[in-house]
Specification:
Heat Shock Protein 90, 8 strands, single chain, alpha+beta, 5-stranded mixed beta sheet
């Protein structure tokens, strides 16, 4: 909204300045020059034909505000050119008769440069002014439409994250209940805390980084409870996470993916998560061991989380992020670097 307000203010400023300068140049400046030059005859004629300038105003704005919008919006350039030629002819004839009525010191001819040039100049400036305003409006409209499309896409991507996450954690709880683990109740309570975060914080455009990290750490704890010593899980956190903001639910899909593909038919499963924040540079790494048969392409729905988060990062951090994903030597690595903003 702040950017949009700046654009609107710039448009308004251009319109005001253009109109003030143009009509001052056309109405006032010639009279002032004749007055300071003490040319009484020229001053008298300029004052006499001043009504011609006022008569030109409707033609100027009819072209700039009506004809250009009517035809150029539809891309009908030939229709606009024909209408502009017709307007020029009507304006020229009207200008000639009014000037002939006002001026009696010398003969008025319709083909005279003193008649043709003012009409041509006003029509040309009207076309230039109207075209600039039209292009500015079109650019703003296109930008607004683009922002709305991005908002809609981002909203859809966010709506996919929560069900996907809940589905994975519920699977963990079902596993604990079936194995009659004493941790089932504890995990259910911790899940309720995570869901509370998702419901009340993840709808915000940005959340505090330390809250997002805490949320991620809680998720990792849930998985440690589920897998116990069957999976080696390492979580390293370093740096200052305070007073910085990040898109909510941005990191969890990488960790979910690691547990999904790094546990199961994997010999000595291993998952390592490194989180570092130095200044405004935030680095997030996830590394997990994968089995020889693990492949996202073999499971059509397995890549939803990562595909989702990749697109969100592209939308939210278009020029301030770096995402590298590799699978080599039996390990799957994801590394994300983002330039974060400080909270206000």
């Amino acid at each position: 909204m702040e950017i949009l307000n700046k654009k609107i203010s710039s448009d308004l400023l251009f319109r005001v300045l253009f109109n003030l300068i143009f009509w001052f140049f056309l109405m006032v400046l010639p009279i002032l020059n004749a007055y300071f030059d003490e040319d009484k005859e020229r001053l008298e004629i300029l004052i006499k034909i001043l009504p011609l300038v006022f008569f030109s105003i409707p033609f100027f704005y009819f072209n700039s505000d009506f004809l250009i919008n009517k035809f150029l919006k539809k891309g009908n350039i030939s229709g606009y050119i024909l209408s502009l030629l017709l307007l020029f002819v009507i304006f020229l004839i009207s200008y000639y008769f009014i000037k002939d009525y006002l001026v009696d010191k010398y003969p008025i001819r319709i083909y005279d440069s003193r008649t043709l040039f003012p009409v041509l100049f006003i029509i040309s400036m009207s076309t230039l002014y109207g075209f600039i305003i039209f292009m500015t409006r079109q650019a703003r409209t296109n930008q607004e439409e683009k922002e709305e499309r991005l908002k809609s896409e981002l909203s859809f991507l966010r709506s996919q994250i929560s069900p996907h996450f809940i589905f994975n954690v519920l699977n963990s709880i079902v596993y604990l209940i079936r194995s009659k683990s004493k941790n089932a109740e504890r995990v259910t309570l911790e899940l309720s805390e995570l869901i509370r975060y998702m419901l009340y914080d993840s709808d915000n455009k940005q959340v505090m980084l330390d809250n997002e990290i805490k949320y991620l750490a809680n998720y990792v704890e849930l998985q440690k409870i589920r897998f116990g010593e069957d999976v080696e899980i390492i979580l390293n956190m370093e740096g200052d996470f305070n007073n910085k903001t990040i898109e909510p639910m941005l990191l969890i899909p990488f960790v979910e993916n690691a547990f999904k593909h790094g546990v199961g038919y994997v010999l000595k499963p291993f998952i390592e998560i490194d989180i570092n924040c130095s200044g405004n540079k935030f680095t997030f790494k996830v590394k997990n061991k994968v089995g020889p048969e693990t492949s996202e392409e073999k499971e059509p729905n397995s890549g939803i989380g990562l595909k989702n988060v990749k697109r969100r990062i592209e939308l939210l951090y278009p020029n301030t992020h770096k995402l590298v994903i590799n699978q080599n030597n039996g390990y799957f690595d994801s590394e994300l670097s983002i330039e974060l903003k400080n909270s206000l």
